[in-house]
Structures are given as structure tokens and as C-alpha cells.
Amino acid sequence: MSRKIPCIVLLGPTGAGKTRAALHLARNLPGEVVNFDSRQVYRDFPLITAQPTPEERAVCPHWLYGFLDTEEKLTAGGHVRKCHPVISAIQARGKTPILVGGTGLYLKALLQGLAEVPPVPQEVTLRLEQDLQRVGLAAMHERLQQADPELAARIHPNDKQRTLRGLEVYEATGKPLSWFHGKQEIHSDYHALLLGVQAALPALEPLLAKRIELMLEAGALEEARTAYARCQDPDAPGWTGIGCAELLAFLQGRLSLEEAKALWFRNTRAYAKRQLTWFRKTPDVSWFPHDDPLLPEKMFEQARSFLDGL
RNA sequence: GCCGAGGUAGCUCAGUCGGUAGAGCAGGGGACUGAAAAUCCCCGUGUCGGCAGUUCAAUUCUGUCCCUCGGCA
User: Fold this and answer.
1) What is the spatial distance, in angstroms and rounded to an integer, between the CA atom of A268 and the C1' atom of B36?
2) Of the four listed, A28, A156, A292, A306, which is most buried by Cβ atoms within 10 Å?
């Protein structure tokens, strides 16, 4: 019907069991797994970010896991650019790409594309950060109102991140970010079947708490120590992940282990909640209850008929 | 036992020169186009420790009791 690449997407909140289902699909379709999680890309935190284990990775090729240094930053656009060749290559090998992850923006960017905004030079970003320190966020938002009224109307004056993003695009290109958004054509290189692992927050809680204990037993603290030996900057992108930040605070004596664990749990839980909010409005997802023991088989069945029907 | 400081939202605390109270965090809901495990928005009735007294009116002043934390014994 089209030249779009067929692929299976596995989405859902953290800790709901996406990996298990992904491996079943990979074995039987057969397929290869591609990550769309913004944190599982960090090399120094395989355990804390819950990347697939070496045993799990042995089942089939896994892509875009654990390749980034702690100091490095990945962006939605950067991730999409890395994904395209990986997915094409999987198709060329006659396998089915299985996209697995929890970062809603990355998935959206992958499936719908992003506006084609030229890269912003770092000095522009740095200068705006300095301006912010000098004049305050309210003044920066007013500046955005001049530069890009349409965008400013959509961005809350307290939203530092989006206000600065709007300004940096304007400063770097001379055009409003909303202009780039407006001229973007929504198109997709992929024909995707979206399979969601569904889990309500109360059901997820005990699983998330348990997972933290398991991570610590498996050596999460040692992982953090080793990472700390390589990178001491607590503001480095890799350290800002949930679990990483709390363990770092413990290693630096800012929190007791009990406090760190409690905070780690709360942050994980809040994150899962945000994921649920995001994925809830994602269209065309087939949802499967996370506690169904036959979840992998049922997902496989649906994936099979999706692929056969093309 | 004595002296001091406290007992206010699930937690940490602010406040009311007497007119029944509000922040942060937690929690709930939501947004989301290159930092997204990020960033941000909306949602606050709680015997203001108990009892008594003064007062038109007490969470606020007074007395007393209970509890917590320091210090001295």
C-alpha cells in the first residue's frame, strides 16, 4: 500500500513490563529492538535507567541503548536522526523494527516528524541564559511576546525552558519558532502499530518500589559510584535522571540512603504519572493490562495480523 | 523535678497587634514540537493539642492539663 516501513511500537509507563513483551515479539516476528527512552541511552547507568540486561540483549539486536556519556545531551531531534538509519537497516535485514520506550516526545517526533528548525549555536543559548540572570524570566517572556506573539500566548510566563527555546530560535534564525511549526508538514516514514502496556498508578506503585530495591541489590550504588568517578558534575545531563540524582545526593552526603530511596520512589511515581497523562491521549493505541500473564502472546498475535495484513 | 522552646493541612513550617488561617513539599487533575526521567499550569475546612476563663468575638490574651524537643538536675 505504501513504501512506509512497518514497525511495532511498545509504549507505557516505566516499570510496567515493556521489555518482557518486547523480547517475546522480537523472538517470534522476528524483530530487533530500538530504544525510544531518553535515559536508557546513558552508558554509565544501565541498571538505574532499567536498560535491558545483557541476557535480554542476547535475544536479538538492541539499538540505541547505553551509547551516550554522562556529560552528553541527547535531544528529541538528535534521537530521531539516529533512529531513521537504524530502523531502515533493520527492515533491510528483513526484520521487524520494535520500538520500545517511555519518552512520549521522542515517539511523537519519530512518528510525526519535527519542525525543521536549524540548529541554534551554543553561544546564543548561553547569552540568553545570561540575559535571564540579569533581567529575570518575566522580562524574557515579554521579549518573546515581541518576537513571537503566537508562541508566547501558548507558553506560560513561568515556563523558563520553553520561553528560552522560543527566544533562541528567533535569535538564531530571525524567524519565530511558531513559523517553523506552521510550515511543518506532518508526515511519517513509518506505518506503526501502537501497543500499550496499561497500568494504573496504584497498581504500579508496589512494582516501582520493588524495582528500586532490586536495583540496589543488583548494584545500583556501585554503578553510581563508578559513574561518579568518571563525572563529578551533578548538573551533567546523565546525572539528572531519576535514581541517578538521588544516589548522587547520597554519595555526596546530602541525603541519607533512606531519604534518597524515598525521594527516588516519589520521583519515579510522579514520572509514571506524567507518562500516563501523555500516553492517554496518544491516538490509536491498543491497550493491554500489564498484569495479564498472556500479554506478550496477545501482543504478538495482534502484531502478527497487523504485519500480515499489509 | 526545674528552666527554656514548641504543639496550626499527610510532612516541614509561616501567620493572625483578638474578627475562625497560608506557603513549600507530598497528593489529585492537566499541558507538552530539539533539556521531555525535562519544564510548567490548576486544585487548600484544617476540632490552629485538651479543658476552663476574660471578651460581642479566642487559633491569637490568661490559667491549667497533656504531649514533644533542648538545657539543668
Assistant:
1) 14
2) A306
Q: Which of the nucleotides lies closest to A112 (Cα–C1')?
A: B33
- Amino acid A262 CA to nucleotide B66 C1' distance, rounded Å: 33
**Distance, CA of A38 to CA of A273 (rounded, Å):** 17
Grid coordinates in use for A118?
A: 536549524
Flag whether the ipTM exceeds 0.90: yes
Whole-number distance in Å between A256 CA and B2 C1': 37
Name the nucleotide nearest A277; use CA and C1': B30
- Full-model pTM: 0.92
State the Cα–Cα distance between residues A123 and A117, nearest whole angstrom.
17
Å from A270 (CA) to B21 (C1')?
A: 30
- Predicted confidence at residue A254, as pLDDT, reads 84
> How buried is A34 (Cβ within 10 angstroms: 0-12 exposed, 13-18 middle, 19+ buried)?
buried
pLDDT tens for residues A109-162?
999 999 999 999 999 999 999 999 999 999 999 999 999 999 999 999 999 999
Which range is least confidently modeled, A69-78, A251-260, A270-279? A251-260
- For residue A2, pLDDT over 60 is answered with no
Nucleotide nearest to A200 (CA to C1'): B28
**Which residue is nearest nucleotide B26, judged by alpha carbon to C1' distance?**
A266
Question: What band does A310 get if pLDDT is binned at 50, 70 and 90?
Answer: confident
